[in-house]
Design a protein that fits this description.
About 3% of the residues have low confidence. The N and C termini lie close together (10 Å). Strand 8 and strand 9 form a beta hairpin. This protein is elongated. It is of the alpha+beta class. Helix content is 42%, strand content 18%. Helix 1 crosses helix 2 and helix 4 packs across helix 7. The strands form 2 sheets. A 5-stranded mixed β-sheet has the order 1-6-9-8-7, with helices on one face. Strands 2-5-4-3 form a 4-stranded mixed β-sheet, covered by helices on one side.
Length: 268
């Protein structure tokens, strides 16, 4: 499951259980992360802490119930986790700008708190435009790649493979001398503890040979994604005697990346 899908799964879990007692461990478990790293990643992606997000969601829902129903305000406060009318009124006023009693009289005009879509939160959606569309996940990687045009190569990886390029060092002329190619946004990768599974990119003469062997979890999806991009220098998928599948993609620099899928990942 892609990282963004895991994050969204945890957010949806929170929103579906706002009236219950949610532990941070239970929420983070939905994203298959530790509580510590989920909270850090959530804050970076969404711009608020997990506790603040849940509090704002609850207050928005409570405001809607106060405006639309005749239920007692104390009952609504208890429903959304407040132990006293005073603490609820203070939090409600900070969020909506008016007291619960005034909100009931007004019957509308209260603050909403929209559902979070992780895809739209990352760079306005631009950075994760193809995480779901490309349909494959890189499982193992880490080779060194030489190129004379680091910016052009990074763009090729973005356009053809759906990766993300970052040029970390440039010379006095502005030419890239070192960078990384990653299968997820750099900002997200930096917030996780997973091993490096990108490509180290250095300035140098392209080798013109097989430059990387990369394991993925859905080679058919990768093949379809590359073909859809319009890149024609891709071989057909080959069944191997060891039970896996392979296909070769020739890069913009003339090197060959061999993608392979082990039998255990077939059908996922």
């Amino acid at each position: 499951m892609e990282l963004m899908e895991c994050m969204q799964r945890a957010i949806d879990f929170m929103e579906d259980n706002l009236c219950g007692k949610l532990s941070m461990e239970a929420i983070a478990g939905q994203a298959y992360m530790s509580s510590f790293h989920f909270q850090r990643l959530f804050s970076v992606v969404c711009g608020v802490s997990v506790s603040e997000y849940m509090r704002n969601c609850r207050l928005a829902l409570a405001g809607g119930e106060i405006a639309r129903s005749d239920a007692r305000i104390i009952d609504i406060a208890l429903k959304y986790g407040y132990e006293s009318p005073e603490s609820f009124s203070r939090a409600f006023a900070r969020f909506h700008g008016i007291s619960p009693m005034a909100a009931r009289s007004r019957r509308g005009g209260l603050r909403a708190f929209p559902h979070i879509s992780v895809k739209s939160m990352i760079g306005g959606g631009q950075m994760v435009q193809n995480l779901k569309e490309r349909g494959y996940t890189v499982k193992e990687n880490g080779p060194i790649y030489y190129t004379r045009d680091m910016d052009g190569t990074a763009k090729w990886f973005e356009d053809v493979l759906g990766w993300y390029g970052a040029i970390d060092q440039r010379n006095e002329e502005g030419q890239g001398t070192y960078g990384c190619l990653l299968p997820m946004p750099v900002e997200i990768f930096s917030m996780t503890l997973q091993p490096f599974n990108g490509i180290h990119m250095f300035i140098g003469e392209p080798t013109g040979q097989t430059v990387a062997f990369m394991r993925v979890d859905n080679v058919e999806k990768l093949h379809a994604f590359v073909k859809k991009s319009g890149w024609t220098q891709i071989g057909e998928i080959r069944e191997q005697h060891w039970g896996g599948k392979e296909c070769d993609v020739t890069t913009i620099d003339g090197g060959v990346i061999r993608f392979f899928e082990l039998e255990e990942y077939h059908g996922r």
